[in-house]
Every structure is written in structure tokens, then in C-alpha cells.
Design goal:
Elements (H helix, E strand, L loop, with lengths): L11 E4 L2 E4 L3 E4 L12 E6 L7 E6 L4 E7 L2 E7 L4 E6 L4 E5 L3 E7 L4 E6 L8 E2 L2 H10 L2
Antiparallel strand pairs: 1-9, 2-3, 4-11, 5-10, 5-12, 6-9, 6-11, 7-8, 7-10
């Protein structure tokens, strides 16, 4: 059973503390208590050609926090209400919270690495892979 959509949830940047220095390097740590959900899966995407657009889908239930642990990552998000957001990630101690029901498009700089903390384990049925189906959800939730 799907939870009721919380319309107050919008994508937002999250800053995480870091320790260290330029001389020795940095360390950033996060725990479930610092996140808007409990981590159920972690994955990373890398070696994406710079002229390739990734994403092209939304999720019914999955929530994510994504990081550019290397390089720069551009994200364009669209909610089922038609609200649009654009973000650039290029600091490993800053993540982007992506609530459920946001269509995403992602670009990568050379050698960029995206790491994702996800609220659910992989489930193909959670994916909305057709944009037309995503747009129909506007009528379902309003």
C-alpha cells in the first residue's frame, strides 16, 4: 500500500559535516538519524560518457539522497505538480534529497561519480519509466 503523497516534500540540498584538512584530506560521514529516511540500498554510477543523459524515470515510493563524490553532476527534476528544479552537485559533503514522484534527468562531467543512498531495496515495479505515465499521475493525486 502506497503512503499518502506529502506535497510539502520537495527536492533540497543537504549539507553534511566534514573533518580533516587540505594537508591530510577529508572525511564525511552520515547516519540514518541525519537523513529523511532509513537507508535500505546504496549504489553508485560512474564512467558515464559526458554526452549521455541518465535518469529518465521516477519512483512511486523510493526516496534518495544523491552525491557527486567526484566531478560534477547536473540534475533536473520535475514533480507531478509540474514544479521543476535544477541542481549542480560538485562537493562530496553535499547531497540532494529527491522525494518520491520526481522525474529526473542527470548529466555527468568527465570522471564524475554519483553515489545514491536509497530508502528502498531495488524493485522494478517502483519505477515509472514512461513520461506519459508519470504525467497521468498528476490527475491521480489531485
Amino acid at each position: 500500500m502506497r503512503e499518502v503523497l506529502m506535497f510539502s516534500e520537495i527536492p533540497r540540498l543537504l549539507d553534511f559535516s566534514r573533518t580533516g584538512s587540505q594537508a591530510i584530506g577529508y572525511l564525511t560521514v552520515t547516519q540514518n538519524s541525519e537523513l529523511p529516511f532509513t537507508i535500505r540500498r546504496v549504489y553508485w554510477t560512474y564512467q558515464v560518457p559526458t554526452d549521455t543523459m541518465r535518469g529518465g524515470h521516477a519512483h512511486h515510493d523510493l526516496k534518495q539522497v544523491v552525491f557527486a563524490v567526484n566531478g560534477q553532476i547536473g540534475l533536473t527534476l520535475e514533480g507531478i505538480r509540474g514544479d521543476k528544479y535544477t541542481f549542480t552537485l560538485n562537493q562530496p559533503d553535499q547531497g540532494l534529497y529527491i522525494p518520491r514522484l520526481y522525474w529526473g534527468a542527470i548529466t555527468f562531467s568527465t570522471n564524475a561519480v554519483l553515489m545514491c543512498l536509497a530508502s528502498e531495496e531495488y524493485l522494478e515495479a517502483d519505477y515509472i519509466r514512461e513520461y506519459a505515465e508519470f504525467k497521468i499521475l498528476q490527475h491521480v493525486h489531485f
